[in-house]
Amino acid sequence: MRSALALLLLCGPAFADAEHDAFERAKPVFEAYCAKCHTTGGKSASKKKLDHFDMSSYPFGGHHAAQIGPTIRKVLGMTGKSPSMPSDRKGAVKGDELARIRAWCDAWDAAHAKR
């Protein structure tokens, strides 16, 4: 039992590093499709949008921050339902760009899994 606990404690930083690396690869996609509404100073940003999801800094803020991986999967249509974002081009994130976001979501999930 002690060795399993030690392994979990040692893996924590590795999961965080993987999340950060995945974020760096996904960051241009977030900037291209999300930043105009979900960053302070974005041309379509509003208090309501920033309260939901604020990507002005990393880790992201907003009341969806605690579940941001699953939330992003849902709004980009990765759960099998129709995408609802980006609001002005629903479903525009696809192909390699969507794969980079999916990889970040997976890394986020691993780094934030309840242990």
Task: Explain the overall architecture.
This protein is mainly alpha-helical and 115 residues long. The chain has one domain. The protein is built from five helices and no strands. The chain has helices at residues 2-33, 35-38, 47-52, 68-75, 95-112. Helix 1 (2-33) runs antiparallel to helix 5 (95-112) and helix 4 (68-75) packs antiparallel against helix 5 (95-112). The radius of gyration is 15 Å and the shape is globular.
Short synopsis of the structure:
By secondary structure, the protein is mainly α. It has helices at residues 2-33, 35-38, 47-52, 68-75, 95-112.
Strand content: under 5%
The helix content is 55-70%
Shape verdict: globular
Strand/helix succession: HHHHH
Q: What's the alpha carbon Rg, rounded to whole Å? A: 15 Å
The total count of strands amounts to 0
Distance between the termini: 14 Å
Number of continuous helical runs: 5
Tally of separate domains: 1
* Largest sheet: number of strands, sense, barrel closure: none
Show unreliable segments: 1-12
Give the arrangement of secondary structure elements.
Layout: H1 2-33, H2 35-38, H3 47-52, H4 68-75, H5 95-112
Question: What labels would you give this structure?
Answer:
5 helices, disordered N terminus, globular, 0% strand, mainly alpha, 115 residues
